[in-house]
């Protein structure tokens, strides 16, 4: 490709609303342009990189035995109502009506559609197992689109669905897709971790997220450096070190029952810690919520944060929200001074972190007072304990006892065991050897293809621009002609360009009539693996090479340039980036 003909509007200035490095660089390098909030057009270079990711995805999915198809993006509401997700999915589901008033949704995911297809087309166990996938645009009405392609309202996804007769068959399909994902993200050049996760609105069990490690990531990954344990913060569990459990209020004399103390206008954990000169881990905070419309008080240590995903699972609830101050007063308490002692007609659930606590502090359910010297087992009676907190710094791995580590990650893939959640609700079943019908057992497997593109750039850039992995780069080689008016340089550039193209390499030839500094800056910004510069030594048939990743520069004769490229790219001239 000749660069003077390429639609590649680079920017010198960093866009002010671009927070993430990938967003800034994709705009500056002319890979994407925003049409509306969370909606982007892919310009030629961005689309070439996206196609390269798709090619890797297709190769690995096909190798795993999956079959590609394509489903509609417009879904009739009846399907989503039949599965129960029309209301559960929430405001992220983009809904619309046709001219006759019939309700539709723009596909956020395709479990309902694929299940209906399989229901209509597969009726015998002899046709299973089967795994089907597509690469298609998805739509979600994000409340706050941000970070460019990392959180958009329209995005490209690969979604796959497996159909098996038995749980053991699902296990095999799940492992096959898991392995394919490892291969895909490895080939894309990503540093990633597979972590235990929550299934969210998709449903199902035994789910893993594939996280690309990056500081801009909105997900927190908890992992152990000693064993293989890794989980999303929503799913992670940890053990509290013993020395953090047995802290006592040494300044207060022991008592046989809680003691009420005056704490005027002390309504927060921080204020209470300072007022009583104690650590937050001696405070039991009471979080007032409603779960599916019923009031619940959650008790956990003052230095820990509530995990709503774990809480929903412990309660078996679909929706959890904070209680208003008015509703708290109806329970017989007051915001800022809520406590578990004396409250009636409310369900209590305690985090395991408070189990065994003595000399603890709780709210007294009246303004400006707290109770001290509370013993959990003595004073709280029969109470249900569950792990409903976020793992915190200093927690230990429940598997091996080593301290857990924390990192930020970008979710690029997610695999689920759905079981019969959708096949039962939508009536997808197969007959066994005896003609008895049984629901099909399903799995689903998603990759955010456009998000992978952004994640790759988040992990591969420097102060000058993008540094593409070879497997994804829009072009493998950037050929620069310093002076296009120089006949010798242009003739030699033409020879090199033709030779490399015929050998199977993807080459962008900068034949623009522009200053050398502009060309070099643009080349660093675009970040292709190898730059070949035809300049002052053209008459000697000598060119300068520069490798973008490590910045090494050296000269090569034109006669050896093809051999050098074969050695550098280790492809023997075969390239998939045409």
TrEMBL record:
Pfam family, one: tRNA_edit
One GO molecular-function entry: proline-tRNA ligase activity
Catalytic activity: tRNA(Pro) + L-proline + ATP = L-prolyl-tRNA(Pro) + AMP + diphosphate
Localization per record: Cytoplasm
Tagged with keyword Transferase: no
Domain Aminoacyl-transfer RNA synthetases class-II family profile: 33-469
Keywords: Aminoacyl-tRNA synthetase, ATP-binding, Cytoplasm, Ligase, Nucleotide-binding, Protein biosynthesis
Enzyme Commission number(s) from the entry: 6.1.1.15
Protein's UniProt keywords contain Aminoacyl-tRNA synthetase: yes
Role noted for this protein: Catalyzes the attachment of proline to tRNA(Pro) in a two-step reaction: proline is first activated by ATP to form Pro-AMP and then transferred to the acceptor end of tRNA(Pro). As ProRS can inadvertently accommodate and process non-cognate amino acids such as alanine and cysteine, to avoid such errors it has two additional distinct editing activities against alanine. One activity is designated as 'pretransfer' editing and involves the tRNA(Pro)-independent hydrolysis of activated Ala-AMP.
Subunit architecture: Homodimer.
Family statement drawn from the similarity comment of this UniProt entry: Belongs to the class-II aminoacyl-tRNA synthetase family. ProS type 1 subfamily.
PANTHER family (alphabetical): MITOCHONDRIAL RIBOSOME PROTEIN L39/PROLYL-TRNA LIGASE FAMILY MEMBER, PROLINE--TRNA LIGASE
Domain comment quoted from the record: Consists of three domains: the N-terminal catalytic domain, the editing domain and the C-terminal anticodon-binding domain.
Record protein name field: Proline--tRNA ligase
């Amino acid at each position: 490709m000749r660069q003077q003909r390429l639609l590649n509007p680079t920017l010198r200035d960093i866009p002010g609303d671009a927070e993430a490095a990938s967003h800034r660089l994709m705009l500056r390098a002319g890979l994407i342009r925003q049409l509306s909030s969370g909606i982007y057009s892919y310009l030629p270079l961005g689309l070439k990189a996206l196609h390269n990711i798709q090619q890797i995805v297709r190769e690995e999915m096909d190798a795993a035995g999956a079959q590609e198809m394509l489903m509609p993006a417009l879904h009739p509401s009846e399907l989503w109502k039949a599965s129960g997700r029309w209301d559960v999915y929430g405001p992220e589901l983009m809904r619309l009506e046709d001219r006759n008033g019939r309700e539709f949704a723009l596909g956020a995911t395709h479990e309902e559609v694929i299940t209906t297809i399989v229901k209509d087309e597969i009726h015998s166990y002899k046709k299973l197992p089967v795994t089907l996938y597509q690469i298609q645009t998805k739509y979600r009405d994000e409340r706050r689109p941000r970070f460019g392609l990392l959180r958009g309202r329209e995005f490209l996804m690969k979604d796959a669905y497996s159909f098996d007769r038995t749980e053991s068959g699902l296990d095999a399909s799940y492992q096959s897709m898991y392995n394919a994902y490892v291969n895909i993200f490895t080939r894309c050049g990503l540093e990633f971790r597979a972590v235990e996760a929550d299934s969210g609105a998709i449903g199902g069990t035994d789910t893993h997220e594939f996280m690309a490690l990056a500081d801009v990531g909105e997900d927190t990954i908890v992992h152990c450096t000693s064993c293989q344990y890794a989980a999303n913060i929503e799913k992670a569990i940890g053990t509290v070190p013993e020395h953090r459990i047995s802290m006592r209020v040494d300044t207060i004399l022991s008592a046989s029952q809680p003691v009420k103390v005056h704490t005027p206008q002390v309504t927060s954990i921080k204020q209470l810690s300072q007022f009583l000169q104690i650590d937050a881990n001696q405070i039991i905070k009471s979080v007032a919520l409603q779960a599916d419309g019923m009031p619940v008080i959650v008790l956990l240590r003052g230095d820990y944060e509530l995990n709503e995903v774990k809480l929903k699972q412990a309660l078996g609830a679909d929706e959890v929200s904070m209680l208003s101050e008015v509703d708290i007063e109806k329970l017989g308490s007051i915001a800022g001074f809520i406590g578990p002692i004396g409250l009636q007609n409310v369900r209590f659930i305690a985090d395991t972190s408070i189990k065994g606590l003595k000399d603890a502090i709780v709210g007294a359910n009246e303004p400006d007072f707290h109770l001290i010297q509370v013993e959990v087992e003595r004073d709280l009676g029969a109470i249900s304990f569950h792990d409903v907190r976020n793992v915190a710094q200093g927690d230990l791995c429940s598997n091996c006892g080593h301290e857990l580590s924390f990192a930020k990650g970008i979710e690029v893939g997610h695999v689920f065991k759905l079981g019969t959640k959708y096949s039962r609700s939508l009536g997808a079943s197969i007959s066994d050897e005896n003609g008895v019908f049984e629901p099909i057992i399903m799995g689903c497997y998603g990759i955010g293809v456009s998000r992978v593109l952004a994640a790759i750039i988040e992990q591969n850039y420097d102060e000058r621009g993008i540094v593409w992995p070879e497997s994804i780069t829009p072009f493998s080689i950037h050929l620069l002609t310093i002076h296009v008016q120089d006949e010798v340089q242009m003739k030699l550039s033409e020879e090199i360009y033709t030779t490399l193209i015929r050998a199977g390499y993807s080459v962008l030839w900068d034949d623009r009539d522009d200053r050398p500094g502009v060309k070099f800056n643009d080349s660093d910004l675009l970040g292709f693996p190898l730059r070949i510069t035809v300049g002052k030594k053209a008459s000697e048939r000598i060119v300068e090479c520069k490798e973008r990743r490590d910045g090494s520069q050296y000269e090569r004769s034109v006669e050896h340039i093809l051999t050098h490229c074969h050695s550098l790219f280790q492809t023997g001239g075969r390239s998939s980036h045409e």
